[in-house]
């Protein structure tokens, strides 16, 4: 399954209990940055994808950008900068 987001948005892998995920979502909402959230505890194969991206660690939030790159626990400012590039 391809989780690469459309231009100008991100895909964010998260969990419901992750404080860093909740903080990033609030910041993205406040700045009007679009995202698709995928709960790795509910979508088959996504926890393994997050582990693959993060060298074996199941770290969230993990963000995918339209260019295929990723970031682990980025700031909203980093997300905005990378989307503008």
UniProtKB/TrEMBL annotation:
Glutaredoxin domain ranges (all copies):
10-64
Task: Cite the InterPro entries for this sequence.
Answer: GlrX_actino, Glutaredoxin, Grx-like_ET, Thioredoxin-like_sf, Thioredoxin_CS
A GO MF annotation of the entry reads:
electron transfer activity
One GO biological process this protein is involved in is:
cell redox homeostasis
Q: Where is this region: Disordered?
A: 65-85
Q: Which is a Pfam family this sequence falls into?
A: Glutaredoxin
Q: What is this protein called?
A: NrdH-redoxin
User: Which organism is this entry from?
Assistant: Pseudarthrobacter enclensis
